[in-house]
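User:
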Amino acid sequence: MEQFRIRIEWTEPDPDWDGLDAATWGRVGFFVGDDCITSNHPADSRVPGDSEFLEGPISGLAEWVADNFVHVLWAIRTPFPIEEIGVNAPPIPGLRQASSGWSEYPIDCDMNQMGVWQHRHTFGHADSPLALPSIVFLPEPRYVALAVDYPNTALDPTVRFTAPSSRPWPHLYVVRKEQLEEELGTFIERVINQASSTEEAKKWAAWLSNRWERSRSEAADPETRIRVALGDELSSIVRDARSTHPRIADTLADFLLDCSSSVREISSFLTEQLSSHLEPGGPDGAAWRRIANSGMDLSAPLFEQGYQLARRVRSFLREEVAPLPTITALLARVDVERDEPVHTTAFRAAAFGGRRFARIVPSADDERMRSVPSYRFAVSAALGRLLAAACIDPSKPIATAHGRYARLLETRRANAFAVELLLPRRVLEVRASVIREEGRVPQALCEDYGISQSAANWHAYNAGVLSLRA
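Assistant: Predicted structure:
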């Protein structure tokens, strides 16, 4: 897992700047792993070569971190459907998308909420005179994704940024939340200490120090975390559960992170499902538990984790490359029940698991579930979510979902699981010459394996069998 780093070098201020700006004048550079994401050169420069640093007043960046710290770490649900992000779709919204009014995103997105979300998640937005690349934080419970892209050049920034040669922008990095939290804290403390050393900035340093303490307290408070993670509407469901069904409240909160706000309509169904899975159980011998107990390499990239789990399922089934049977038969062979569909658009397929049993519940109202390949993919992805959750923490009850608003990083692992489970990479490699000749995975092969051609082509691209997405 890569680390996010901020480097500061305090320098003499530009003579045209004074006060707080002069007191916090310096050179600042951002790095993720081995990549510098602030590599730049002056917009009007004819001299080749980039600097890793931006120079100017750093106080505004520190204010932005203090004001938005809890959102950077815990505002997990987004005002846009995660499913609309990525392959053959718009990227995570950044500065370029904001400048066009987010016109690429679904029309049912609330533009006011999009604006608030963009400000709270885009590093330094509206608080710093420094020209920055677009750095957007997308938090999840254990990790934070960093979406890095170019700024809007129509605003005529004073510098031009250069993306790392091996990772063209837009690019998505993933860092551990604890490491990001520590680095941002170190950054603010350094700015406060620098400002405190000058008479003209001491009052501001004291103000920022108090604001920073409040922000840290907010980010450490469990109730604030839930409210920020879920929003007011869904967090109220969790508050109600703490009064009426306290044993399921934490599991319910985790489940709601993957759902649209329409989930309130099935709150009684969720209470019933979660209560049954939190009952004391017997021996831990279910097939899906045994598969999960074989472990997962959490240090591997998310897509590779999904591939690993899918191969373990196929190995358990002794079906290394053959097309799988119906989804219901597949679930039965790994001791997972398939419940009757529930009328909701909050998710496409939900997975619940405890010591006694596990079940997957498809949606009866999601339009994509009417297509056999889409149905197979969604239920397979939900199975992947179930197995991954059991690998990460076998002691916890599991409640998770796959759908339009499911968490980005979890969805990427689940999608990789589903596509490898339905159509193993080995099959693509054997058929590589035919696939390359046609420029796509043959429709007949997709039908044999019960997978859509778009998903199969995406898998072939990632496997290196197709050079371009079909």
